[in-house]
Write a structure and sequence with these properties.
Layout: E1 2-10, H1 13-47, H2 72-91, E2 107-112, E3 119-121, E4 124-127, E5 131-136, E6 144-152, E7 158-165, E8 177-182, E9 186-192, E10 197-201, H3 205-221, H4 228-262, E11 265-269, H5 273-276, H6 283-289, H7 291-304, E12 308-312, E13 338-340, E14 347-349, H8 350-360
Parallel strand pairs: 8-11, 11-12
Antiparallel strand pairs: 1-5, 1-7, 2-6, 3-4, 4-5, 6-7, 8-9, 9-10, 13-14
Helix pairs in contact: 1-2, 3-4, 4-7
Domain Cas12f1-like TNB: 291-358
GO biological process, one term: transposition
GO molecular function, one term: metal ion binding
């Protein structure tokens, strides 16, 4: 089993400069290989002959000497990432690969552990061509390090994610089960096998920070392009957005870990978030909730700890079906928070009824 451990890096000024250069070189190679791939395809289409062999990252070094300073494995992994993007495109699970932007794309690079080039000693982590960097190891691990991904946030903070190979967790037999209905008024309505229901309030992190974000955005718009004051305003705005993101992830991680710790079978609904966000009235709230990230965290944490996660089909009518008699009461709009079953007369809270129907699927 492969598991990732993410830590905060504290590089020196020289180390930070090298990390930024390596990130830029990996992005450059990715874009250059994509450009050549498109050019090769157009040439073969125009001539009707066989395609020429695409270049390798090493073939660009004589033309661009600055690539020699970067970690060669980071450049090789950039090619692997592009190959994986094309594989997803050909499989129909993603669109055509796009060029990476310095401003919009995630700033990161990946390198592999060859003969102990990535290791932890005396509170520092060693990376190829960088050396030992101070980092905050807030939790330990047992296993062999396979690779490391260095990333940089828009506020200039560096992180390293170590991919570690570990033994699989033993399967845990079902003892406690829980059904989870996701929503906006309450982030989650959870009912366990003792039929005890708990409603988790929606933190609405983005909504609460909107006033400060607007002020920071206005301040940035008024600064002269290229000035130091504009860079300060950009950094302040980036910090505001990073705070919102960190608070959202903190909430999702704590809730998902608590659910996995307390239950052996977790049943959660999967929502068509992309389609739901087409509604302009709800798109911001849906994006702020982070349902997809929550399900993703539940999925990998359940796998790591030997739990069973059941992801229910989006078409399952958990809200429409009466949890008492099983009668389908028909579609209900979002304003209908309570309803009474016409068949058995049971009165339902919309979210509690949905969580009960999800819980019954665990049997």
């Amino acid at each position: 089993m492969l598991k990732g451990y993410k830590y905060r890096l504290h590089p020196t000024a020289a180390q930070a400069e090298f990390l930024v250069k390596t990130i830029g070189c990996a992005r450059f190679i990715y874009n250059k290989l994509l450009e050549d791939h498109i050019k090769i395809h157009e040439e073969a289409k125009a001539s009707g002959g066989p395609r020429r062999k695409p270049p390798t990252p090493a073939s660009y070094k004589p033309l661009f000497p600055f690539l020699c300073e970067a970690d060669s494995l980071a450049l090789a992994n950039a090619k692997l990432h592009l190959d994986a993007a094309f594989a997803r495109f050909l499989a129909g699970t993603a669109g055509f690969p796009v060029f990476k932007s310095r401003r919009r794309s995630r700033a990161s690079y990946t390198t592999n552990n060859q003969h102990g080039t990535i290791r932890i000693e005396a509170g520092k982590v060693r990376l190829p061509k960088v050396g030992f960097i101070r980092f905050t190891q807030h939790r330990g691990f047992d296993g062999e390090i396979r690779s490391a991904t260095v990333s940089m946030t828009r506020t200039g903070r560096f992180f390293v994610s170590l991919l570690v190979e570990q033994a699989d967790e033993p399967f845990v037999p079902a003892e406690h089960k829980i059904g989870i209905d996701l929503g906006l008024e309450h982030f989650a309505t959870m009912t366990n096998d003792d039929l005890v229901t708990e409603k988790i309030p929606n933190p609405r992190n983005l909504r609460k920070a909107e006033a400060r974000l607007k002020r920071a955005q206005r301040a940035l718009a008024r600064k002269k392009p290229g000035s130091r004051n504009r860079e300060k305003a950009r950094l302040l705005l980036a910090k505001r957005h990073e705070q919102v993101k960190n608070r959202r992830y903190d909430f999702l991680h704590k809730l998902s870990r608590r659910i996995v710790d307390e239950n052996q079978v977790v049943v959660v609904e999967t929502l068509r978030t992309r389609e739901m966000m087409q509604d302009r009235r709800l798109s911001k709230s849906i994006g702020d909730a982070g349902w997809g990230e929550f399900v993703r965290q539940l999925e990998y944490k359940a796998r790591f700890h030997g739990r069973t996660l059941v992801k229910v089909d989006p078409w399952f009518a958990s809200t429409q079906v009466c949890s008492a008699c099983g009668e389908n009461g028909g579609k209900k709009d979002l304003q209908t928070r309570e309803w009474t079953c016409a068949a058995c007369g049971a009165h339902h809270d919309r979210d509690v009824n949905a969580s009960l129907n999800l819980l019954y699927l665990a049997d």
